[in-house]
Design brief:
With about 210 residues, the protein is mainly β. It contains 1 helix and 11 strands; from the N terminus they run E-E-E-E-E-E-E-E-E-E-H-E. It has an 11-stranded antiparallel beta sheet. The chain is globular, with a radius of gyration of 20 Å. The chain starts with a strand and ends with a strand.
């Protein structure tokens, strides 16, 4: 539930918390908390910043939900000692034809009290340039790393080039139909941790994507 939401000078602070109780394999409770601050015109006019601090325990999830299948954060079979936190900062802007978003994240999670843990970081950005009222050029890049307490550093890099089609200009304009080409590359440690990546060090994807919300 949204337990607190208030306007601050130049920004807005929001607190969202959740508590779960049930009978599951290795635990009976879960908690989640999100603290989010949105700041308009951050440092420069038209530049907006969002900062999240999120934490969870048991079978609560970082997204304030629960029971994310196959996820360490939000596993219905999670022991009560499972816990995780992450810090995210996001910048978003639109200046004339040029718009975009940049995001940085650091995350830590632990499977159970005294058990294995992992930490990860991610840094990425997507930028767009309106060629005309309906078509924009989009580029996206991201660097992601993860290391388990008993493993080597895993790295995954991504680069995407796309054309976006929409009813109006602007980075956040939706719906948007994209034709894209994505290049993914990873190191040996990442391949060893995921059987689907074994024997390869990268791949190229071509596709069509439709994104909308309401």
């Amino acid at each position: 539930s949204d337990v607190c939401s208030s306007d601050l000078p130049g920004g807005k602070l929001r607190l969202i918390g959740a508590f779960y109780s049930g009978r599951f394999k290795d635990g009976t409770t879960g908690t989640a908390l999100t603290i989010k601050h949105d700041q308009s015109h951050f440092l420069l006019p038209g530049l907006n910043n969002s900062l999240w601090l999120q934490g969870c325990t048991g079978y609560g999830a970082l997204n304030t939900g629960f029971g994310g299948p196959g996820s360490l954060n939000g596993d219905l079979n999670a022991a009560s000692g499972t816990r995780a936190w992450r810090l995210i900062d996001s910048l978003i802007w639109q200046h004339g034809r040029f718009g975009g978003q940049a995001m940085a994240e650091i995350e830590y999670d632990r499977k159970e009290q005294g058990g294995a843990s992992s930490r990860g970081t991610s840094l990425g950005a997507r930028v767009s340039y309106d060629l005309n009222q309906y078509v924009r050029l989009i580029s996206e890049g991201a660097l992601t790393s993860r290391v388990d307490s008993d493993g080597d550093l895993q790295r995954l890099n991504k680069l995407t080039i796309a054309l976006g089609l929409g009813p109006r200009p602007g980075f956040m304009s939706r719906p948007e139909l994209r034709v894209y080409c994505t290049r993914l590359e990873w190191n040996a440690a990442a391949a060893a941790a995921r059987s689907s990546l074994a024997g390869r060090s990268g791949t190229t994807l071509l596709g069509l994507q439709l994104e909308s919300w309401w």
